[in-house]
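Contributing: when you submit paired examples, paste them exactly as shown. First protein:
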Amino acid sequence: MGMVTQKTRGELIRNLFPELPDYRFRQTEEAVFHAGWKSWNDVSNLPGEARAKLAAEVPWTSWTAADLHRSAAGDTFKTILGLPDGNRIETVLMKNSRGQWTVCVSSQVGCAMKCAFCATGTMGLLRNLTSDEIVDQVRYWLDFVASPEGPGSRISNIVFMGMGEPLANYENVKESIRTVLKRTDIGLTRITVSTSGMLPQLEALLLDQDWPDVRLAVSLHSADAKTRAQIMPSSYEGFLERLKNWALKYLAAKGGGRRHLTFEHIMLGNVNDSPEHAAKLADFAKSIGDVRVNLIPYNRTDAGFAVTPDARIRAFMDVLERNGITVTRRKSQGDDIAAACGQLVVRKS
């Protein structure tokens, strides 16, 4: 489970044209990011014979169908992409605070983490996405934003916060980030990888010279070990202390500037939203140093948790701020099209 063996787009092209000069290969890589081009037949800087062979043998995209949904506010779009094996994934485009657009990509079909508040976990893990399948979500939105029916402006950010645990698909996520950095104008600190806290992989990336130093966000959701284990079955005894030790090493090696570490905390009514939970979170964050906290209002799913009232969220934030913690509150977008955090779930078509 979780493994996909089909060849990447680049491997297919190399097999099709074993003698292809490097500059021609770069042209094929660049071509798929060309806004407005819809097939290999549009790639005017390649010879006609090569275009015909590519069109016959190499899929232009890794998805076969797209079902677009637009929120009533017009600030969020969700697309369900159908894959050749019948699986489907969701990807989201959200207007950000800079008046530009953020793409939320999925890294797996489903998820094995089974976080109690997240709809994706009810799917289980069906498989990892290939690097092409991750990159092609970004390509889809780049084309959409630039199209006549699109919202205009530009895509400035990417977050790996869609379906799946990104670090459980480490190599494909890494390769997809490297491709996006190479072929778009989106910078390192405009890409965020969110993880439930897979410590072996987090330790590995500290030593991985090929890992792009993008921003990291850890889904903490509680600094109380018992509470965290109740809502995140992947948690375990000693996790918080191990996470703290890793975070100290991470900040020493890669911190500073705009590459800060973020802890994400979903607000679940009467579960992890009390002043006591806020105080524990503040103490945990202070024990590490330069970390930020992002509070996420719960978006209703079939899990049945209660929504934390605004006043209680404000009180939670006040505790953190009084302790010198930089804290933000995520704006909920797209809940009317089930595109908000924790709501992504699709079944095989």
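Second protein:
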Amino acid sequence: MKETQINKIIVYFLYLLAFASCFYMFEAIQAIIMSAASFFLLLQYTSKKKLLSIKTLPFILSFLLLLIYNLFYFNSRSLQSISNSLLIFVVPIFSLFLYDSSFFKKHKNNILLSYSCCISILSIYILGFYINDIPNHHFNWYFARFNLEKNIHIHGTYISLWIAVALLFVFDFLAKNKDLHAKFKISLLILAFLLLASMVVINARMILFSTLILIALNAYFLFVKQGLFNKKIILIPLVLLFTGVIFLSQRYKDDLKFLNKNKIENSSRYTICYCSLKVIRNSNFLGTDNSTIQPKLNDCYDEYGFEDLSKEKLNSHNQYLDYFMKGGILLFIAFIVTLFVKLRYALKSKNYLYFSISLLFTFSFLTENILVRQYGIYLFLFCDILFLGSVLINESHCTDEIEKN
């Protein structure tokens, strides 16, 4: 099989990955598509390009640390954990070879739009369900989200993250393609409105606010920095949007009331963070057997009077703390460096879309263990396959120049 044929197969699988977002309830299908796409991505390897470099080293090191911990250091030798770490840290590196394919570069924007359209279908369903469910929730956000999550069978944080990435795709496409047909541009604006409205309904706070900030940051890079618009044109709508979201959201109002009446130490989020740090400290910062992390967290919750947290078996709700517990300080540092590599070189190559997506994940990792569920791994892998290779290429070329050639 020729390399060009492999590249075409990968592109077709990327389309399938985009469409797989509509069939999220069939996790097995999503897993099969991810595995097949990863397999063909690995087949691209040629010795013409050096796979090991200062940029790729943190990714490889993160995978090796997790592999060593799973196989030799602890007793819980989880094949799923090993395969997940392979998908997260190793497979995306091979997108470096994908950027040699003109076929991929030709279809890349279409893949992004395909994903955004699929997510917009989910957004329409979310908005429709929310409106139809008004007699049950009476605009009470807690009831509304509980009913919604129970109906769609996916955690609100993950679906909100999927929607946020789609919104960034649409904004980037609108900003960079000024000669779009009027009807197509209107369609994209409607799509963006649907995506944003569904995010407001789900109201995953960190992701919602992060997305609004990142859209403003992209507008600054693409318009204000180039002298096309005044800063106030970007800032004023953003402030109004933030104010409107806070005013409409019961969740934010309740947070403000809680902080006004209670100490932050009384919050469940503080207790979860404190107990996670306690597990890390008790392991001497060297990592803890994955099978014992949750029982240790539960014991800590009970000790401080948060029995509900132990009954629900809540994890650290922080991806950084999760990796710190699983792999100690070495894995924690390696993981942080992988994010630094993405952010630094995406910004350096003026790939503002990938910079925004990487920053979005960086923020979302603060409030959720995104990479412990397939919903998070799916999106993380999808984005990295599409973009990581663009920042691993020669520093002397920017992404825009490469895609034109």
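If you have annotations for the second protein, write them as plain sentences, like these:
The longest helix spans residues 102-132.
The two ends are 25 Å apart (CA to CA).
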